[in-house]
Amino acid sequence: MTAYDYDLFVIGAGSGGVRAARIAAGHGAKVAVAEEHRVGGTCVIRGCVPKKLLVYGAHFAEDLKDARHFGWTVGEPGFDWPSLRDSVLAEVTRLEGLYGQTLASHDVTVIRQRATIADPHIIALADGTRVTAKYILVATGGWPVKPDIPGAEHGITSNEVFHLESLPRRVVIGGGGYIANEFAGIFNSFGSQVTLVNRSDAILRGYDEQIRDRLLQISMAKGIQFRFNCPFERIEKNADGTVLVHFAGADPVEADLVLFATGRAPNIAGLGLAEAGVELTSSGAVRVDAYSKSSVDSIYAVGDVTDRVQLTPVAIREGHAFADTVFGGKSVAVDHETIPMAVFSHPPLAGVGLTEAQARNRLGTVRTYTSDFRPMKNVLAGRNERSLYKMIVDDASGKVVGLHMIGPDAPEILQAAAIAVKAGLTKAQFDETVALHPTMSEELVLMK
Ligand code: NDP
Question: For the whole prediction, is pTM greater than 0.85?
Answer without folding.
Answer: yes
